[in-house]
Amino acid sequence: MRQVVVLGSTGSIGISTLSVLAAHPQDYQVLALTAASQVDKLLAQCLAVNPRYAALLDATAAKALAQALKQAGSKTEVLSGIDGLCQLAAHPEADIVMAAIVGSAGLLPTLAAVEQGKTVLLANKEALVMSGELFINKVKQHGATLLPIDSEHNAIFQCLPSGLQQHTHDQQLADFGISKILLTGSGGPFLTKPLCEFASITPAQAIAHPNWRMGQKISVDSATMMNKGLEFIEARWLFNCQPADIEVVIHPQSIIHSMVQYTDGSVLAQLGQADMRTPIAHALAFPKRMASPVAPLNFKQMRDFTFSEPSPERYPNLYLAMAACAQGQGATTALNAGNEIAVQAFLDGQLSFTDIARLNQRCLEQFSGFRVSTLDDIVALDAEARQYARSLLRKGL
Ligand code: NAD
Ligand code: MG
């Protein structure tokens, strides 16, 4: 029985994780579930899977959860605050930690799991975008196992030779005959929308992704392709490569989840349904395989299989993230922080769709030269960039 902690259990990835775990009750036990403040959702999950612990970031919500659990006769112990989340991520009995909190809020709990040498299933890409080198150094220092959940990175991982899978953080791709990582993306809901209509795109239109059902933040990021930009930075760190080794390819059908090109001309791809339960099952079972509730692909029903290049006019956020990746850690931390503020402002109706990129560009310009090396530097820059982004929102861009 492997003990699993699910950070961000009430979200899209958290729910998919519980769905995979429910199919394998003999192999996995849920040790802890955590969320931000959703009492009712976490209560229902606790009553369904009966974890030893639950935690909510919000202390008042945690009190309400503890009371409701007690009334229902549950023995689940409730913790709260960032300390409670970190404590569960680092719990001595936890074997696997699913890092599925959205945004920079996931950084400290995810690092807490890494520092205890856990097997960390990383969905929370923003944590790696913010802290790249420091994160990977901690993985090496503490002997943690880092397995990608993001479908593209999980696909790339599956296409690597097994000798490299065990040592992705300190080997060179070229030494294994790899010439390029081909990061695919659907292009989101606005792949063919006339550019002149972009300024009036509404939040409801932006979160309606053609292929994937996801949380709101990543759905907006997919529409702007900032998501692919964050994934570009994520790939740079996960696979110990340089920006020049990664190419973004638009593949609107989301059947291929990414590819690895070898020097002999071979290209290996991982294909599957647009359902996160496949990469989740892969990472939970690695290095073995186990069944997931995902239907197999039906090639007889597949009509189109197309590819194109992302245009900078349509997807300026992708190119900002690629530029930040080349500039360094200060740039990626600041861009990620600015983008979190911009996306929330867009969802709240305070910023137009096209102004997301303008705000992000201002943040990148303001902080691109910043050097960060310690966790304190990163947390401080994240806070400063957020403050700057909020001041731009107040003053106007
Ligand atoms: P979501 O918004 O559906 O869920 C987020 C979860 O994090 C919730 O449980 C929420 O309670 C918790 N949370 C939010 N803010 C928090 C805070 N401040 N402190 C503690 N917990 C907090 O998001 P999601 O779509 O499940 O995405 C989660 C992560 O996985 C993101 O980083 C996203 O980029 C990544 N990811 C998601 C998908 C997907 O299909 N949804 C695919 C690839 C990667
Ligand atoms: Mg992805």
CATH architecture of the largest domain: Orthogonal Bundle
Helical stretch count? Answer: 16
Q: Identify the CATH class of the largest domain.
A: Mainly Alpha
CATH superfamily of the largest domain: RNA polymerase sigma factor, region 2, helix turn helix motif
Low-confidence stretches: none
The kinds of small molecule bound in this structure are: nicotinamide-adenine-dinucleotide, magnesium ion
List the helices and strands in order: EHEHEHEHEHEHEHHEHHHEEEHHHHH
End-to-end Cα distance: 54 Å
Global geometry: globular
Strand order of the largest sheet: 4-3-2-1-5-6-7
Total number of β-strand segments?
11
Radius of gyration: 20 Å
Percent of residues in helices:
40-55%
Identify the notable features of this structure and list them briefly.
397 residues; alpha/beta; Rossmann fold; 2 domains; seven-stranded parallel sheet; 11 strands; globular; binds nicotinamide-adenine-dinucleotide; binds magnesium ion; manganese ion binding; isoprene biosynthesis
Task: Please outline what is shown here.
The protein is an alpha/beta fold and 397 residues long. Helix content is 47%, strand content 15%. The chain has 2 domains: 2-148, 3-Layer(aba) Sandwich (Rossmann fold); 162-273 and 296-395, Rna Polymerase Sigma Factor, Chain: A, CATH 1.10.1740.
